[in-house]
């Protein structure tokens, strides 16, 4: 749902000194009362956290990397919520890396059911450095620690998948017989308008943008699953609302239990879900639906503002059985609504056990459970306007909101423990994700969409002038990663565009090379890549509703260079688990030349991603010794197929403007 946000990332207050990337031979690490910051590394990737999603009975063994022979001792300092106190774990030397450049130190936090937060204290004689998710600092940090949340699991298929988002009316018309025609009905006094595919999304005089229809439907999506699964390579579908509603966007629900007739029938949804889940038409897929549970439309029979139903809705009578589903300040015309839109009256969730909570998620036949169960067996919910869900007309983000989403999680996971719960939030979603009892992930406006847009296009996601240098970009990313447990980071929806903001292609002013570069980053960064239909070919579009143009099927083919690159990048992502759940390490930030290099690695593979955000090509020397690549070993650029030899701990490569390389070994 669109609502205005003007957010910027709150960058960490700690002093994070820039890394020096000289080869390790220049370091001469020793016990000299000086901890070498360049050698320090830890994250919760598989090499450094041996139980990234522990149960309450699993201890957590952690590893810390330092330069060989550089430190005299290291400790894990963790806060345990069980006793609200700090505890210390001395670390011991564990091993060396393959190059002999680094030491690994090891320590184990004992098993328990309580949430914990940890940092490292690293000592070389009289010198002490602290390290947490913000990186190294000379003074002890007060925030940004790593998370341990026992018994909190996010779906593996979400971490390892690629998502494709579809606004159903605008993707493909598979059944013209169900198209909404001009004047077919009126809503709030305005008639519907049918427009030709490819024409302007704006209503003609006398009509309304929200009542413009093009004919896209579920059958159309079904017919194009081969394109989504095979040509693009995505295996998770997220659909904007599909339930009965008078508008084209369907965020004004009239009936949660019925697919909108313009999109098909409930049987059509059942067939689509079955085909998505099938592996006969491409990789097995997953389906996420948009759950609009903060509000209904004013035409819902529970409200019935227009007297469309024989029953009496809350707007019609204080005696309505649904009167308490809403909050009136002066019945009938003054009531709590979503951001003041009178067409979207807010649901009143009341106390635990209320009728609204029952029908939305608690009852056996509740909306949330019904679609998770057979015959649909959807795989998760994306929660629209989730921060606002509350009782008595309040606008959420308080104890009641968190209680509701905790109950929702219990209900959903009780049906399918591997179902995904993704909340819409435009800022730091830590309050909903860092306790392990509400959402699995969130919409990553703050940690992906905004910084990527500013770095590559020089515009924020609302298309206003805003720019980041490469080092600022890296700092932003580090700060926003620190907001979340690692399994949440790996599940965040990372999109270049969505239905609420101007298209990336428009912010890039139609420069397809900027889309290429954005795709490189999207497919190699931490999180779930989420392609808003058409972004794979650089579709343009301004603010809502222009960001919801019809799909151009002359562009949606494997012969389109951007679509082909998307498919290739996804295939590389699928080939290497390190690109999905491996560690993330910054290797190089070159502000003058606009070069950004980072590593993704696990026990099996070491990968250096090199991005050039300049308009001209640059020759880059990448410090792959930080990834423990040995001298004389070779790496292969998975894009060009060229091989390179590691010399003096580095690889030198030339990168075209607004393009990248993925160097794997």
Description of the molecule:
The protein has 665 residues and is of the alpha+beta class. The chain has three domains: 37-148, Immunoglobulin-like, CATH 2.60.40; 158-292 and 384-578, Glycosidases (TIM Barrel); 582-664, Immunoglobulin-like (Sandwich). The chain is built from 15 helices and 35 strands. It has an eight-stranded parallel β-sheet. Strands 2, 3, 6, 7, 8 and 9 form a six-stranded antiparallel β-sheet that branches. A hairpin with a 2-residue loop joins strand 6 and strand 7 (127-132). Helix 9 (445-457) runs antiparallel to helix 13 and helix 13 (512-524) runs parallel beside helix 14.
Summarize, please.
By secondary structure, this protein is α+β, with helices and mostly antiparallel strands.
Question: Keyphrases for this structure?
Answer:
alpha+beta; Immunoglobulin-like; TIM Barrel; 35 strands; 20% helix; globular; hydrolase; hydrolase activity, hydrolyzing O-glycosyl compounds; GH; signal; Glyco_hydro_b
Provide mean pLDDT, rounded.
Answer: 95
CATH topology of the largest domain: TIM Barrel
Strand order of the largest sheet: 25-24-23-18-15-10-27-26
Number of strands: 35
Topology readout:
Layout: E1 60-67, E2 73-80, E3 85-90, E4 92-96, E5 102-109, E6 116-124, E7 127-132, E8 135-137, E9 146-148, H1 156-160, E10 163-166, E11 186-187, E12 190-191, E13 193-194, E14 212-213, H2 218-223, H3 225-232, E15 236-239, E16 243-244, E17 255-259, H4 266-277, E18 286-291, E19 328-330, E20 334-335, E21 337-338, E22 341-345, H5 355-362, H6 367-372, E23 380-383, H7 399-415, E24 420-423, H8 430-433, E25 441-442, H9 445-457, H10 470-481, H11 486-489, E26 493-495, H12 504-507, H13 512-524, E27 528-532, H14 561-575, H15 578-581, E28 583-590, E29 595-601, E30 606-612, E31 618-622, E32 634-637, E33 643-645, E34 651-655, E35 659-664
Parallel strand pairs: 10-15, 10-27, 13-14, 15-18, 18-23, 23-24, 24-25, 26-27
Antiparallel strand pairs: 1-5, 2-3, 2-6, 4-5, 6-7, 6-9, 7-8, 11-12, 16-17, 19-20, 21-22, 28-29, 29-30, 30-35, 31-34, 32-33, 32-35
């Amino acid at each position: 749902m669109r609502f205005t946000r003007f957010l910027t990332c709150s960058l960490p207050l700690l002093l994070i000194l820039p890394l020096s990337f000289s080869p390790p031979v220049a370091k001469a690490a020793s016990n000299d009362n000086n901890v070498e910051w360049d050698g320090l590394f830890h994250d919760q990737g598989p090499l450094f956290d041996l139980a990234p999603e522990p149960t309450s009975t699993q201890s957590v063994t952690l590893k810390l990397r330092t330069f060989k022979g550089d430190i005299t001792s290291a400790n894990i300092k963790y806060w345990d919520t069980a006793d609200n106190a700090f505890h210390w774990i001395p670390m011991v030397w564990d091993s060396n890396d393959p190059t002999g450049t680094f030491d690994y130190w090891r320590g184990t936090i004992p098993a328990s059911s309580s949430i914990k937060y940890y940092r490292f204290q690293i000592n070389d004689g009289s010198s002490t450095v602290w390290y947490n998710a913000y990186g190294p600092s000379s003074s002890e940090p007060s925030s940004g620690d790593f998370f341990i949340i026992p018994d909190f699991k996010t779906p593996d298929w979400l971490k390892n998948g690629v998502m494709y988002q579809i606004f159903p009316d605008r993707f493909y018309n598979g059944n013209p017989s169900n198209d909404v025609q001009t004047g077919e009905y009126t809503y709030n006094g305005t008639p519907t308008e049918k427009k030709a595919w490819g024409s302007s999304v704006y209503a003609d005089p006398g009509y309304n943008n929200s009542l413009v229809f093009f004919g896209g439907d579920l059958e159309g999506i079904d017919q194009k699953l081969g394109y989504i699964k095979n040509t693009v390579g995505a295996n998770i579908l997220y659909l904007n609302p599909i339930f009965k509603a008078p508008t084209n966007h369907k965020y004004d629900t009239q009936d949660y239990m019925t697919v909108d007739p313009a999109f098909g029938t409930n049987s059509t949804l059942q067939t689509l879900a079955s085909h998505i889940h099938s592996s006969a038409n491409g990789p097995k897929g997953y389906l996420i639906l948009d759950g609009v549970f903060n509000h209904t439309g004013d035409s819902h029979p529970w409200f019935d503002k227009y007297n469309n139903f024989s029953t009496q809705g809350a707007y019609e009578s204080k005696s309505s059985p649904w009167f308490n589903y809403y909050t009136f300040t002066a019945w009938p015309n003054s009531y709590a609504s979503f951001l003041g839109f009178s067409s979207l009256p807010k649901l009143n969730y009341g106390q635990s056990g209320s009728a609204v909570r029952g029908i939305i998620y608690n009852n056996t036949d509740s909306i949330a459970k019904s679609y998770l169960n057979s015959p649909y067996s959807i795989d998760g919910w994306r929660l629209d306007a989730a921060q606002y869900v509350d009782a008595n007309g309040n606008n959420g983000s308080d104890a009641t909101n968190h209680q509701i989403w905790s109950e929702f999680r219990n209900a959903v996971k009780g049906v399918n423990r591997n179902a995904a719960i993704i909340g819409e939030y435009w800022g730091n979603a830590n309050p909903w994700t860092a306790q392990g009892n509400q959402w699995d992930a969130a919409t990553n406006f703050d940690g992906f969409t905004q910084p990527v847009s500013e770095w590559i296009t020089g515009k924020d996601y609302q298309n206003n002038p805003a720019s980041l240098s490469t080092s600022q970009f890296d700092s932003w990313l580090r700060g926003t990663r620190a907001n979340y447990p690692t399994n949440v980071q790996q599940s965040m929806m990372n999109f270049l565009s969505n239905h609420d903001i101007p298209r990336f292609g428009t912010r890039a002013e139609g420069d397809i090379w900027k889309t290429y570069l954005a795709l490189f980053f999207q497919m190699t960064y931490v999180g779930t890549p989420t392609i808003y239909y058409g972004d794979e070919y650089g579709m343009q579009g301004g603010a809502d509703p222009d960001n919801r143009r019809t799909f151009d099927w002359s562009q949606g083919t494997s012969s389109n260079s951007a679509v082909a690159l998307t498919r290739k990048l996804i295939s590389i992502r699928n080939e290497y688990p390190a690109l999905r759940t491996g560690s993330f390490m910054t290797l190089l930030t070159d502000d003058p030349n606009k070069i950004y290099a980072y590593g993704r690695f696990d026990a099996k593979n070491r990968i250096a991603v090199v991005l050039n955000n300049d308009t001209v090509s640059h020759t880059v020397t990448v410090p792959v010794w930080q990834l423990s690549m040995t001298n004389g070993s070779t790496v292969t650029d998975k894009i060009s197929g060229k091989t390179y030899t590691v010399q003096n701990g580095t690889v030198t490569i030339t990168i075209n403007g607004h393009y990248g390389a993925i160097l794997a070994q």
